[in-house]
Amino acid sequence: MTKNWLDEVSWDDKGLIPVIAQEASSGDVLMFAWMNREALQKTAELGQAVYFSRSRGRLWHKGEESGNQQTVHEIRLDCDNDVVLLKVTQLGHTPGIACHTGRHSCFFSVYKDGQWVVTEPVLKDPTTMYKQTPGKHDHE
């Protein structure tokens, strides 16, 4: 009997696993989020990123409010089976916007000389990206 691939994942005590989304073409790290078993299975089935929102307590298809979806090219599991890496193409805007702040990447602040410095521009006003109130964002 073949073992179910989802059973090989080391889920945390809440049934979640951390996920890093990396842009396939550039190697840029776009965002960090969470998945539960259903989200990971749907991501594999659809070829689109589906995450679990801890603040909403439900699945969310990346871009369901903003339109900034992620096509998934590859799903990787780290050596301890407790972190997932998605290699994605960020859709919805050129260049792709992964962050709810309207930036390409959620990792836009760099520590320099004792402070955080914003290094990436806002590509699109976040108030125009969301169908609903942007109080609960994709990465939560």
Protein architecture, described:
There is one protein chain. The chain has a domain at 5-98: Ubiquitin-like (UB roll). Helix content is 7%, strand content 34%. It contains one helix and eight strands. Strand 3 and strand 4 form a beta hairpin. The radius of gyration is 15 Å and the shape is globular.
Descriptive labels:
140 residues; mainly beta; Ubiquitin-like (UB roll); four-stranded mixed beta sheet; two-stranded antiparallel sheet; globular
Distance between the termini: 37 Å
Could you estimate the helical fraction of the residues in percent?
A: under 10%
Q: Structural class of the secondary structure composition?
A: mainly beta
Strand order of the largest sheet: 2-1-6-5
* Cα Rg: 15 Å
**Major sheet attributes:** 4 strands, mixed
CATH class type of the domain at 5-98: Alpha Beta
Beta-strand fraction estimate:
25-35%
The fourth-level CATH homologous superfamily of the domain at 5-98 is Phosphoribosyl-AMP cyclohydrolase
How many H/I helices?
1
What number is the mean pLDDT? 89
Apparent shape: globular
State the assembly state of the protein chains. single chain
- The CATH architecture of the domain at 5-98: Roll
Q: What do we call the CATH topology of the domain at 5-98?
A: Ubiquitin-like (UB roll)
Low-confidence stretches: none
Q: Got a strand count?
A: 8
Provide the succession of SSEs.
EEHEEEEEE
